[in-house]
Amino acid sequence: MSKFKYDVGVIGLGYVGLPLAIQATSSKLKVYGYDINEKRVSDYNDGQSSIEDISNQELQKSLKDGLFLSADSKYLSDSEVIVISVPTPLTDYQPDLSFVRSAAETIAQHIVKEQIIILESTTYPGTTVEVLVPIIEDISGLKAGVDFYAGYSPERIDPGNEKWNFKNTPKIISGINEKSLQKIKAFYEKIIDSVVSVGGTKEAEMVKLLENTYRHVNIALINELAILCNMLEIDIWEVVDAAKTKPFGFESFRPGPGVGGHCIPVDPNYLSFKTRQIGKPVRFVELAQEINNSMPNYVVTRLLEKMNLLEKPFKNSNILILGVAYKKDIGDVRESPALGIIENLLDRGVNVKYFDPYVGEIDVKNQKINKEESLDNIKNYDLILVHTAHTEFEKFDFNNITVPIFDATGSSHYQNAERI
Ligand SMILES: NC(=O)c1ccc[n+]([C@@H]2O[C@H](COP(=O)([O-])OP(=O)(O)OC[C@H]3O[C@@H](n4cnc5c(N)ncnc54)[C@H](O)[C@@H]3O)[C@@H](O)[C@H]2O)c1
Question: Can you tell me which atom of ligand 1 is nearest the CA of 86?
Answer without folding.
Answer: 24
